[in-house]
């Protein structure tokens, strides 16, 4: 987590243009505040909080009262941060993803966000979630492909309720194919996981769900001929940290580093074998220890498909993801989020 204190302005200096993105996912709500700069954007604050908004949603299709109470607390913190950094509501974009798509009535979320932040939240479709993840993960990357052909990049966004696969030309910033799978760490942990470590029966049940989803995804998103693969989300960061031999709490230091697929699969296997005490020793956040094993199985199955498709490049982890895509889009839309 990082933040910066706003700089002091000269009396004749123009007012800084600031914007914020909020990514409200199934497990975590996150805030990113940007300021327009000559080279694009300067990061002022990045905040993250586990709220498990998707608690029970896969089964009930309703927000649970305890989850809404956690949302209330998080929104108050976000409101204070927006006030501190003088970000107007007209330049805040609030994107709600999988859990908010799944509920039959999103009004409890919409009403709270509008009341506290003065912003109308967007419950975005899975394909838009994928496109925003692609934009955030690939911003500023050097070309990986030979000149004259598309820089084919796959971004894997492994969230709490869904996993997005998106292939595009990273240099051009163009999405070529995208698909959102209803398999995420919270969703599958609630369906199948009773404790840690995951036993063989649980692993097999999660793998079946993921493989069925991948069968559909591969009809839309081609997994062969890739120049680069990037994984995003805190769960991917945890797997990368285990592969790197550092605490999961230090995952931000690993952003845009890459590892051979076998190394990442070994790291996922270690997480799957770990009990709660071992996960704590690895530095996994308390709010993720009950779901990170399911995430590791999802990751392993996606990696297996990539290997079968002839993967010939290492896989990178990126801290930049959908949140960055949402915040950058808010910075470019002066009236975004006005209620």
From TrEMBL:
InterPro entries: ATPase_NBD, GppA/Ppx_hydrolase, Ppx_GppA_N
Region annotation (Disordered) ranges: 1-20
Annotated signal peptide: none
An annotated Gene Ontology molecular function: pyrophosphatase activity
Gene3D superfamilies: 3.30.420.40, Exopolyphosphatase. Domain 2 (3.30.420.150)
Domain Ppx/GppA phosphatase N-terminal as annotated: residue spans: 42-303
PANTHER family: EXOPOLYPHOSPHATASE, EXOPOLYPHOSPHATASE 2
Protein's recorded name: Exopolyphosphatase
